Amino acid sequence: MAKTVDVLLDAFEHEAKQARVVIATIKDTDMEYTPKEGMRTLQDLANHLAQIPLLDPAMYAREIADVEQARAREKELYREDLDGILAVLDEGINAVKQRFTGMADKEFLAKTLKPFYEKTEKNWAYYMPEFISHIAMHKMQLWMYLKLAGVKVNMMTYYGVVPEQ
To answer: Is residue 61 one of the residues assigned to a domain?
Structure first.
């Protein structure tokens, strides 16, 4: 029987792979594009999406103690070019796999996590779907930015299907 952690790790890897395809699609697109004044640039959004696997678990585990530390880490991980953004995402994917591979369900289900913005302790079974959803939400947002910028994306792009060259 599969462990809970392994099922959710598979779901994470699937969503992260799809997000990587959407991020890679920004190649040759104006990184300063924004759909409307006051919204993030394409570059800012791609950076945010790429940083989720590194930042979210660190916040849940209280390795990032407050908003100031979170902002400093975001700034440290920010990249100006597509290759750098993808490298941050890849680093995060590897970090998540390292953190969770081999974790026992007992540890995964223990209520020992309390990020700086929460009042009660929760477990990884609560937070892992939370950061998978966070990735999915910003993957769709980035896909929509690309669509609005005139990039030829479709639902195959969204679902991580790389077009044949």
So the answer is: yes
